Amino acid sequence: MRALFDWLDHRTGFRTLRHHLFDEPLPPGTAWAFTLGSLLLFGLTLQVVTGTLLALFYAPTPDHAWDSVRYITTTVRGGHFLRGLHHWGASLVVVTAVLHLIRVVFFGSYRAPRELNWIVGLVLLHVILAFGLTGYLLPWDQRAYWATVVTINLSKLTPVVGEFLADLLRGGPDIGALTLTRWYAVHVLVLPPLLFGLIGLHLYLMRRHGISGPIRPRDGVPETFFPYQAARDLTTAVVVGVLLAALAWQGAPALEPPADPTSSDYVPRPEWYFLGLFQLLKYFPGRWEIVGAIVIPGAVMTLLALLPWIDRARSRGLRERRWLLTAFAAGIAGVATLTMLGARDRPAASGGGWNVREQAGAVLLRGDTCATCHRADGVVPAIDPARVSRPRDWVAAHLIDPEMIAPGLRAAPASDQHDMEAMLAALAWGRAGDPLPAVDADGQVAVLFNRHCLRCHVVGPVGGTEGPKLSDVGARLDETALIRQITTPREVKSDGEMPSFADKLSATEIAALAHWLASGRSTAFAAAGRGGSE
Amino acid sequence: MAGLAAAVAVPRRRETLRRWRPAASMFDLPPTGPFVATLTERHADGWYETRKQTVVFLDKDGDEYRALSATCTHLGCRVAWQPADGHYKCPCHGGVFGRNGEVLSGPPPRPLVRLPVRLNPDTAALEVEL
Which residue, among A24, A452, A423, has the nearest Cα to A213 in the 3D structure? Predict the structure, then answer.
């Protein structure tokens, strides 16, 4: 065996390498604070592995990206966990990188002769943030799309080259297919070699000058990296790894509906580590916006890069660097405060239930007309919103035009524009993950309400504004009053514009509508409303 | 190699053709607030053929009509009409625009972009130049 290793060593020199890696002499007192670099390396390795696995299933095109991510989450074995690991791993990397930076500043490790390594570290931090930014677009859901709109518009503010930069990032006249392929290529082909090269340089420079060690050098014999520091590194990685796995077990945040450039009720928010910057932008109105977007972040980064030369103290001692450290701590506190303020400014919780229009659409989708063809043993599969991949206007035509669905079929699933809008809304909301609700009496009333009332009246987050809001009408009127209002509105209010529905709806239907409104069931939809109301 | 990368990766700018497009019927406009019109057209997005959708707010302005782009002039988010407050609000950084599109508060540097709009007397359609 020894002869084999001797032979191998002669050819490869692996013993020298092992000695170089494992027997690195560390200054006495090197301790847990110095495990952050290794932890970062662990996090980045995890991102490379999980990212490669995700790439086995991901398709970077606008018509497939969202579906492929949904497929990863719902169908691929372990996909839910995998995507969770990649998502939370990204946060871990950012947190660890910032903690590493804070450690380096407080220990004075950036000082001569390690200035260059400090700069390389700062560049690495930017590469990590670029990974976060480019990766964010890839799921192609609402969150991804709108965060990218903001990012690209921000890049326009860069002096002189702003428009050029925005063109380069967008890859075409609008954010679309060419943007997605471009960001994917940067995420998986451009940034990784850059990352590996910079990590190599960072480690080379670290070994060249050795670890800075504790702030006050201690007497004693240097200890070797292996097994002492290696054991600490491994412990940190295992503890954090277990925490990460626990988080990832819950999965990544659910996909939002697919990117929709026309949606007006979507409230975009960036990933948490950009929330500080997001909040900063709010304080600089009009032509001052460049201050929040470019000047302040640029100045902070320039100051950080020049830190080794700004620091004129004679030693690494905390007391001798107290002004500099106070300013740095104030900066960190500022970023933390902005991030917290940004996080508190959350939109009304998304999620929630089906609004009245979507509920009506769901009932119609489950109706007999659709079931003529869409059923378990039918000519086409049963309707599953999650599997609809046709564009919206194709589906709209399919719903309202019987000849398009099947020549000879005379009954269109949507009897009018309102039905069609409702069914499209139900498909869009159902696509985001909620199963279609069961058809009950309330659902049937929702269909009536959507067809006849929603154009003028608001219930919850939807509806027209011409008539009064009906979300809480049950508190003002009882069933009898409501029936009278629906059948003979001119008797209630002679100059009102509401037409009578006595000839459009049967007495049973009117009674059901009045019961539904009076019983406050409609307010359930108001409570379940998403977005829109702030 | 840098030249090749630059030649391929830097997108070419193409001027898009502006023309009048029907946005809504004049009868669609409610008296209480602006009408949200979504204009859809075929659009080549690289190899991918898609439908580009543009959102426009149509409103009465005295005897005239007014069309405002729904894109916030700050960072490009989609502003929404707030019927209760009678103004447009951007959900991203809180910019607020008046019914004329003028900036009322928040970070937007410019009013909402006003688009040329005309009434087609033959079809009663409001047409917007995009």
Answer: A24
Instruction: Provide the shortest C-alpha distance from residue B13 to chain A (in Å).
Output: 7
Residue type, B23: A
**Tens digits of residue pLDDT in A147-170:** 899 899 889 888 899 999 999 999
How many angstroms separate the CA of residue B5 from the nearest CA in chain A?
12
Question: Are A268 and B52 inside 8 Å of each other by CB?
Answer: no
How far CA A18 is from CA of A12, A24, A147, A226, B53, in Å, comes to 11, 10, 45, 10, 60
Output the pTM of the full model: 0.78
Tokens matching residue A477: 């009127």
Dist CA A246 CA A249 (whole Å): 5
Q: Pick the closest to residue B74 from B29, B108, B39 (CA basis).
A: B108
- Nearest CA among A226, A188, A261, A254 for reference residue A26: A226
CB A311 within 8 A of CB A111: yes
Predicted confidence (pLDDT) per residue in A429-466, tens digit: 776 666 777 777 788 888 999 999 888 888 877 777 77
Distances (CA, A) of A346 to A133, A341, A383, B49, B89: 20, 9, 34, 35, 16
Rg (CA), chain A: 30
A348 CB neighbour count, 10 Å cutoff: 14
Note whether B75 contacts A150, CB cutoff 8 Å.
Answer: yes
DSSP string, A246-307: HHHHT-SPPP-SBP-TT-SS------GGGHHHHHHHTTS-GGGHHIIIIIHHHHHHHHHHTH
Highest mean pLDDT among A171-185, A394-408, A422-436: A171-185
Contact A177 B47 (CB under 8 A): yes
Instruction: Answer for the pair A297, A335: CB distance below 8 angstroms, yes or no.
Output: no
Q: Which two tokens stand for residue A473?
A: 């009408």
CB B66 within 8 A of CB B55: no
Give bridge partners of residue B61 from the DSSP assignment.
B64
Q: How many CB atoms lie within 10 A of CB A298?
A: 13
Q: Tell me the β-bridge partners of B55.
A: B38
- Phi first, then psi: what are they for B69, rounded to 5°? -70, 140
For chain B, count helices (H), then strands (E). Answer: 1, 11
Q: Cβ separation of A286 and B103 shorter than 8 Å?
A: yes
Contacts of B83 in chain A (CB under 8 A): 465
Beta carbons of A117 and A206 less than 8 angstroms apart: yes
Structure tokens at A398: 């399919």
Beta-bridged to residue A182, according to DSSP, are none
> For residues A135 and B23, what is the distance between their CA atoms, to the nearest angstrom?
36
